[in-house]
Amino acid sequence: MTLDSRYNLLRYPDVTAATPNEEEAAAAAGVSLFDNGDDHVREVAETLQQTLDCEAILITRGSRGMALFERNGNAPIFIPVYGTDQVADVTGAGDTVIATFTLALAAGASYAEAAKLANYAGGIVVMKMGTATASNEELRHAIERDEELNQ
Questions:
Q1: For 22-29, which contacts have Cβ atoms below 8 Å and span 24 or more sequence positions?
Q2: pLDDT digits (tens, 9 = 90+) for 36-84
Q3: 132 vs 149, which has greater pLDDT?
Q4: Which of 39, 85, 95, 146 is catalytic?
Q5: Cβ neighbours of residue 100 under 8 Å, at least 6 residues apart?
Q6: CB–CB of 67/41 below 8 Å?
Q7: CATH number of the domain where residue 105 is located
Q8: What pTM, to 2 d.p., does this model score?
Q9: DSSP string, 88-149
Q10: What is the DSSP letter of 34?
Q11: Nearest to 32 by CA among 19, 47, 18
């Protein structure tokens, strides 16, 4: 079971994974947003993982991308934002991330694979005005483009 509950994360312990944004995660962990560096995000994620007793925390960080923390001892993965930081509209971006992340996990993806796919989908929808979707074709193009750039 995955969770994206705006400001009510701690009401749902024993989930498999959660995808809060940075502000929601910090509030739930009871820490200030003053320092939003990688160490701060790591501290927040560890607190949430212990409190929720979950396997993974995927924190969305706006223009700084996403950070994935897994309980199994894997090193944290900091995923750069997909696309540009010229956002048109963030309406529904969190919903897109949790839906894509959950669907990928249900299809057998690892947490890292699911997080990367969710990052593509989130990056696609924030470039559109209003509540938007990411199509299969758009996701396929994003993955292919990213693979070409990283060769």
A1: 22/59, 22/60, 22/61, 22/62, 25/57, 25/59
A2: 677 789 999 999 999 999 999 999 998 889 999 999 878 999 999 998 7
A3: 132
A4: 95
A5: 114, 117, 118, 120, 121, 122, 134
A6: yes
A7: 3.40.1190.20
A8: 0.91
A9: S--TTHHHHHHHHHHHHHHTT--HHHHHHHHHHHHHHHTTSSSS----HHHHHHHHHHHHHH
A10: S
A11: 47
The segment with the largest mean pLDDT, out of 35-39, 91-95, 102-106, 122-126, is 102-106
Active site residue 95: yes
pLDDT band of residue 33 (cuts 50, 70, 90) is low
Which residues form the domain of 7? 2-149
Q: Give the Cα separation of 48 and 25 in Å (integer).
A: 7
Q: What is the DSSP letter of 62?
A: G
**Structure tokens of 39?**
């160490």
Task: Supply 43's token pair.
Answer: 């501290």
Tell the residue number behind the tokens 């312990």, with chain if given. Answer: 13
Classify residue 112 as exposed, middle or buried by CB count within 10 Å of its CB (0-12, 13-18, 19+).
middle
Terminal-to-terminal C-alpha distance of the chain: 35
Do the Cβ atoms of 107 and 133 come closer than 8 Å?
no
Count up the domains in the chain and report the number. 1
Amino acid sitting at position 37? G
Estimate the crossing angle of helix 111-125 against helix 93-106, to 10 degrees.
Answer: 150
